[in-house]
Design brief:
By secondary structure, the protein is an alpha/beta fold. The protein folds into two domains: 165 residues, Rossmann fold (3-Layer(aba) Sandwich), CATH 3.40.50.720; 203 residues, Dihydrodipicolinate Reductase, domain 2, CATH 3.30.360. The chain is 32% helix and 17% strand. The protein is built from 13 helices and 14 strands. The strands form two sheets. An eight-stranded mixed sheet has the order 13-12-11-7-10-9-8-14. The protein has a six-stranded parallel sheet with strand order 3-2-1-4-5-6, with helices on both faces. Strand 12 and strand 13 form a beta hairpin. Helix 5 packs parallel to helix 6, helix 9 crosses helix 13 and helix 11 packs across helix 12.
Length: 430
Amino acid sequence: MIFLNRFAELYMNDNNVNMVDLNNENAIRKDVLLLQCEPLPVVRIAFVGLGKRGKQSFNHFMYIDGVEVKALCDINCDNLTEIQQMLFVHNKPSADLYSDFDDWRKICEREDIDLLYVCTDRGMHAEIAVYAMNHNKHVAVEVPAANTVEECWALVDTAEHTRRHCIMLENCCYDYDELAMLNLTQAGFFGEIIHVEGAYIHDLRFIDFATKTHYMDLWSMYGNPYPTHGLGPLCQLLNIHRGDKIESVVSVSSGQFNFPVFPEMDSNAYKLGNINTSILKTSKGKTIVLQHDVSSPRPYTRNYLLSGTRAFAHKRDELKVALSENPSEYISDNELNTLLTDNEHLFYKQIGELARKVGAHGGMDFIMDYRLIYCLQRGLPLDMDVYDAAEWSALVELTSLSVQNGSIPVTFPDFTRGRWNKVKGLQFSQ
């Protein structure tokens, strides 16, 4: 069986859904690489999950033309009231409100919605996305899109069968510096990329850890539970499933040191450790180092690193670049500023000013949402596809498997089923 058994009910209990034939794998073999769907001049959106992240994202759509907010769903009625008021302030029509736990299903079953925007608890991401696509909805889902490899396959299989877009909302792919480095990479500035590194290093000890939240739940997990912020931009640099593919991963976790005790949780249940380090290798021999740490007293960084045959770049708090002619010294700040200005990505040239004004995290979140609507309105392939969502999320389980088995290499699934070399390089549709 292709799909998770626990997902089977999503396919089998609604006769109005275009069902996936679980006994006929060939029925879903057509890939969705560069998927183009019918243009949607006005994108009708429903938001599911309107906590802190959902509210930030919702605000962006108040500044994007050609969208209609049709429905809002959250179990906290105060959140619904706040967002409905935001629509009023921006002179937008009011939306239908849903507050029961399973109301997202009712929203998926409506016929007047094109896109489901999902910012719920991570444990629900894949389930909601699969159900939405099976009801003819495009879906944008927060990170990670799935928590197991089987859930990743469920996203891929459903997208291929329904021909609906499924994008994971990886905002770090739209950071100013990351997009500039992508431009330079595609222009050959770095030569051949040999090695890249990324991370999610974020001291979060001051929030959530002593309460029953998803951060507490992380400590019953192994491996890297939050890999996508570091991994996403690196996979774009390396053209993963667009000319190369990840072959394997090795993962190792430290012990747990100097960490507050959860009253509700036996200390023997701590499995995550302070720091996880994973090494990935691609079919073309490129290597990726990925780290996760949310419990050590250290500055925030995604520790972005790019090593090529002609140049090197590294960003902890500020971006630095060195050239092969003088690798022991970084180029001057003036030279770097000129390099970045000359290679500013088109997205920032087009909407950077508005993005910085209204968007979270320096504007990259707004650009991500703007591009999603831009492509849907024009029937263009999305910047990130369901294979990205699956590949970047699969590390949650794969790193865990490696750690639990003595940090042995774990084979990485090919979610494209052999079509990873069909598309030659990452390109953004215009």
